[in-house]
Amino acid sequence: MSPELGHFALALAVAIAAAQAVLPLAGAHHRDARLMAAAPALAIGQLLALATSFGCLVWSAVIDDFSVFDVAENSSTNEPLIYKITGTWGNHEGSILLWCLILACCGAAVAAFGRNLPSALRARVIGVLGLVSAGFLLYALTVSNPFLRVWPPPLDGRNINPLLQDPGLAMHPPVLYAGYVGFAIPFAFAVAALIEGRVDAAWGRWVRPWALGAWCLLTSGIALGSWWAYYELGWGGFWFWDPVENASLLPWLTGTALLHSAIVVEKRDALKTWTVLLAIGTFSLSLCGTFMVRSGLLNSVHAFASDPTRGVFILVLLALVIGGSLLLFGLRAPQLAPSGVFAPISREGALVLNNVLLCSVAAVVFTGTLYPPFAALVFGATLSVGPPYFHLTVVPLLVPLFLAMSVGPVLPWKRADLLPGVLRLWWAAALAALVGIAAEAGLRNAFAAAGFAAATWLIVGAFAELTERVRLFRIPLAATWGRATAQPLAVWGAAIAHAGMGVTVAGIAGMALSASTIVSMHPGQAISFGGYDWALTGIHSQPGSNYTARVADLLVTRNGKQVALFHPSRRNFAREQQTISDTAIQTNLVRDLYTVMGDERDGQVVLRLHVNILAPWIWLGALIMAIGGALSLADRRLRVGAPARRRALLPVRVSSWTR
Amino acid sequence: MDALTRRRMLMLAPLGLAAAAGGGFWGLLMRMQQGTYDPHTLPSMLVGKKLPSFSLPGQPPSSGFSSTDITAGGRPALVNFFASWCIPCIQEAPTLAQLREQQVPIWGIAYKDTIPATAGFLQQNGDPYVRVARDQGGQVAIDFGVYGVPETYLVDKDGVVRLRWAGGLSDDIVRDTLLPMLKSLA
Amino acid sequence: MTRLLPALLALLILASPAHAVSDPAEMLANPAQEHRAEAIGDQLRCLVCQNESVEQSDADLAKDFRRIIRQRVVAGDTNQQVIAWMVARYGDFIRLRPPVNGETLVLWAAPLIALLVAAGAVLIGWRRRGRTPEPLSAAERQHLANLLE
Predict the structure, then answer these.
(1) Per-residue pLDDT tens over the stretch A50-82
(2) Nearest CA of chain C to the CA of B39: how many Å?
(3) N or C, which end of chain A is more exposed by having fewer CB within 10 Å?
(4) Rounded mean pLDDT of A282-289?
(5) Touching check for B45 and chain C: CB below 8 Å?
(6) CA B44 to CA B58: how far, in whole Å?
(7) Beta strands A591-601 and A584-587, pairing class
C-alpha cells in the first residue's frame, strides 16, 4: 500500500513543481498578483507531497517490505532499526529523493520566511526553485525511481554495505545535502534578480541569510563526513582529496566567497556582478558534484552505482539549469547598474582579494579533480591526481588568504591606509611569530610550526576588530563589557567563525605531529608508546545483530592512572563476506588516542596505535565556524522588518542633567 | 568593438567555459557507454613490449615454465593469471576451455595460492592450460603489472605483448577482440 | 626551484603519516630507511582500493608493494628510482603526484592561471567603474520622454 502511495505522491510532486515553475514566473512577468500569490502555496504543496513520498519509502524500509526493489537491495531484516531508516539515503535512488525533499524544503522556507520580500521577487525565486525541482523530480520519477517493485519479493534483503552501518551515516548525508541544496536559494535569488534586471543593496541583504544558512549546513556536513571517515575507516587520516570530497569542497569555497561578497553588495552596493556569478556558480558546482558522483565518470570509491544512461539525463538537466542561468547572466549582467566606488586598499578591496583567492583555490581543486578524465579524453593518458598535488598547489594560495583574513576586518570601508590597519594587528603577528618559533624549536617540525603560527594569527587576529570596537584595555573593563554586549551578533559571529578556521588549522598542524606505531601483542603484554602504557588485557568474541566480532581489550594508563579502556574490534559480516575494523578512539579534546585492530595470528594480535595531537580541533574548529555562522544568522539586522524590541521607557531624571 | 560588446563577451565567458566542460563530459559519457573509457581500469604498460623474463616452478603434476618457453612455440599464446579464491576465474573457465578447443595455447600462472587449493580449482573447473606455474610471492605478477585476478595477456610469436585483458574473459570479448587479434598475428 | 620542490614535498608529506595495519615485522630495522620507504609508499596509489595510498591500504597488493619498496630501498635505490620502477610496470596512474610534463602542464600551472584570470577579471571591472555611463541612445531618450509625460 505505502509504496504505491509514495509513488503517487512523487508523481503529484512533479506536477506541483511544474506548476510552481510556470505560474509564479508568468505571474511576475505579467504582474498578475493572484498568480504571484500562488507561489508560496505551491511550494508548500510540493513539500507536503514529497514528504509523504519520502515517508512512504522510509516506512517501506522499516516494515521490511522487500517488494520494493530499493529496500530489497539495501536493507535486511536483521539490520538495526536506525540503519533501516538511514539506509534509505545510502543508495542512489533514495538519496536523489532526499535531495528533492530538501529542495522542496527550500521552496517552502522561502514561502514561509520570505514574507517581507517584494511579491514579484518572491514569486520569481519560488518559480526558479520550482524549475530546478521539476527537473530533478522528473529524473527521480522516470530514470531513478525508488518505488520500483520486484515480484516475487525476496525473503530477505541484500543488506547495506557494512561500512555504512554507523551513526555517522545517519547525520552526514542529510546535513551535507541540506548544505548543497541550500545554495539553490541564493541561486534562485540571483536568477530572479537577473530576470528582473535589478541587483541592489536590498537584494544583498535578502540573499545573505540564505547563503549563510546553507554555508553553515555545508560546513557541518563536510566536517561530519571527514570525522566519520576518520573514526570509521581506520586509516588514521581525515581527508584524501578524493573526487567526491572535492565535490563537496568546491561549493564550500565559492559559497564562502559568496557570503563575503554579499556583504559588500549590501553595505556598499558594489561587487554585484561577482556576487551574482558566485551565487550561480556555487549551486552549479553543487549540481556538478552530483553529476560527477553519480555518473561513474570519476575514479572514487565513494561513488554510487554508476550508470552512464543516468549520466546523460543528469547532464541534460545540468546543461539546462547551469547553461540557462549562465546565458541569462551573460545577457543581463552587462546591464546591471555600475557599482559603488572604492579604493584598492579598503575593506572592499580585501574582500575582492578574498574572492580572488577563494575562487583560485576552487579552480585548482576543480582542475585537479577533473584532470584524469580530461587527460584521458584529450591525450589518451591515464594518470591520477592525489593529495601531494593538492598540498603543493593549494597551500601557497592559502598563505595570502590567511594573511588577508585577519587584516581585512580591521580595514575601514571605501578607503583605508594599509599601515595603520596592519599595525593594529601587531600583537597578533607577534604572538604568531612567537608561537611559530617556539614550536619549531621545541618540536622540530617545520610544517607544524608554520601551522601553529598561522592558527595563532587567525585566532588572535579574528578578535582584532572586536577588541578595537570595545576599546579593550583602553577604557574601564565595565565599559568594555557594556560595549561588547551591545555589539551586533554578526560581529561576534564573524570573529568566532574566523577563529574557528584558526582552530581547524591548528588541528591539521597538530596531526602532523601525531605518532603511530604497529605492534604485535599477545594478551597480558604491555608496551610503552607516546607517553602512555598500553596493555592488552584480552581478546574475546562478541556477536552482533548481523555480524560476529573479535574484540581486543586494551587498557591505557599514564603514570599508573587509567586513561582509557579500548575495545577495537574486527567485525565479520557473514552475508557480505566483508570484514571491517571498528576503530576505538578516546579523546580529551586535546589529543586523540586511536587504536585499530588487525589480524590475529598464533594468539597474537596486530594493533596499530596512534596518539593524534590536537586532532579533535579539526572538527571542533568546523563546529565553531558553524556556530559563528549561526550567530550571524541570528542577528536581528538580517531579518528585515523584524519588529523592534520595545524598551521600557525610562523616566528622564532631570537631576542627572545637572550633574 | 565598443565597451558594451566587450563587456558582453566577458560576461558570456563563464557560459563558454561551462559549455566546453559540458561537451567534454558528454564525450566521456559516450565513451563510457561504448566501453572505450573506464576510470577504474588501467592500461597495461607491457603492450608493445617484450614479455618480462621470468622462470616459475610448476603446479604438480605440471612442470614450471619460463618466458622463453612461451615464445619457443613459434605462435601467439595467452598467459592467464588466476587463483582458486577468485570468483571471476571460475566464471571464465568455460571460455578458456573453448579457447583450448580452438588450439590456442594458454599458459596458466596460479597467483599467490597454495598447491592443494590450485589443484582443487583445476579439478573442479577444468585445466585448459598447456602448463601451470605457481607465482606464490606475486613477484612475477608485479613485473607483468598485474593488479587483480584474473588477467590475460596475449603474446605474439616474438614474445611481444599485444593485449592485456583485466577481468574475466567472456565469450563476447573472445569473439570480438581476442580471436580477430590472434588471427591477425598468426 | 627544482630543489625547492622536493623539499616542499617532503615538508608536506610529514603532514600525512597514516599507515595500514599490517605486520610489524614488515617494517625495516633501520628507521631512516623505513622513513624513506613510508615516504615512497605515501606517493603511490593502491590499485585495489584506489583512494588510499600504498602505505595506508590494507589490501594484499598494497602489502606486496610495500614489501617491494622496502626491498629496493635496502638494495640502494633512490626514491626516484623506486617510483620509476613502479611506473614502468603500472604507468603514471600509480603516482599520486602526477608527473610534470607536457600533458600535465595545465594541471601544474592551474594556480597561476586561476590567479591571473581572476585578477584580470578584477582589473577589467576596475577600469570600467571609473567611466561615466554611456550617453542615452535616441530610442532610449524617446522612451525616457514617454515615461516622463
Answers:
(1) 999 999 999 998 888 888 888 888 888 877 888
(2) 11
(3) C
(4) 92
(5) yes
(6) 26
(7) antiparallel
Residues 16-55 of C with CB under 8 A from B: 47-48, 50
Closest to A326 (Cβ–Cβ): which among B18, B25, B32? B18
Q: Helix A489-511 crosses helix A387-407 at what angle (to 10 degrees)?
A: 140
Does pLDDT of A509 surpass 70? yes
Rounded to whole angstroms, how far apart are CA atoms C82 and C71?
10
CA closest to B13 among chain C residues: C121
Cis amide bond preceding B61, omega within 30: yes
The grid cell for A363 is: 579552480
Nine-digit cell at C11? Answer: 615538508
C65 vs chain A: nearest CA distance in angstroms?
17
pLDDT in tens, A171-188: 788 999 999 999 999 999
The minimal CB distance from C93 to the residues B7, B42, B144 is found for: B42
Phi-psi region of C132 (alpha: psi -120 to 50; beta: other; left: phi over 0): beta
Interface check for A329 against chain B (CB to CB < 8 A): the answer is yes
Q: Which of C13, C20, C68 is nearest to C42 (CA)?
A: C13
pLDDT digits (tens, 9 = 90+) for C36-88: 998 999 899 988 877 788 888 878 899 899 999 999 999 988 999 999 999 99
Cα–Cα distance, B96 to A337 (Å, whole number): 72
Dist CA A138 CA A132 (whole Å) = 10
* pLDDT of A500 above 90: yes
Which residues in chain C are closer than 8 Å to B7, comparing Cβ atoms? 128
Is the pLDDT assigned to residue A257 strictly greater than 60?
Answer: yes
Give pLDDT, residue A24.
93
Joined grid coordinates for residue A398: 592559502
Query: What residues of C are in contact with residue A599 (Cβ under 8 Å)?
Result: 21
Looking at this protein, which amino acid is placed at residue B147?
Y
Instruction: Write the secondary structure of A328-387 as one string of H (helix), E (strand) and C (coil).
Output: HHHHHHHHCCCCCCCCCCCHHHHHHHHHHHHHHHHHHHHHHHHHHHHHHHHCCCCCCCCH
Cell of A156: 530477505
The whole-model pTM stands at: 0.89
Grid coordinates of A331: 545577457
Task: Name the amino acid, one letter, at A594.
Answer: Y
Q: Please say whether the beta carbons of A385 and A369 come within 8 A.
A: yes
ipTM confidence score = 0.87
Distances from the Cα of A102 to the Cαs of A29, A167, A447, C85, in angstroms? 27, 21, 41, 50
B87 touches A: beta carbon within 8 Å: no
CA distance B101 to chain C (A): 32
The C-alpha cell that represents B116 in the structure block: 592443494
> Would you call A324 an interface residue with chain B, using a CB distance cutoff of 8 Å?
no
What pLDDT does residue C2 have? Answer: 46
For the record, the C-alpha cell of A233 comes out as 575507516
Chains touching C (at least 3 CB pairs under 8 A) are: A, B
Residue of A nearest to B30 (CA): A308
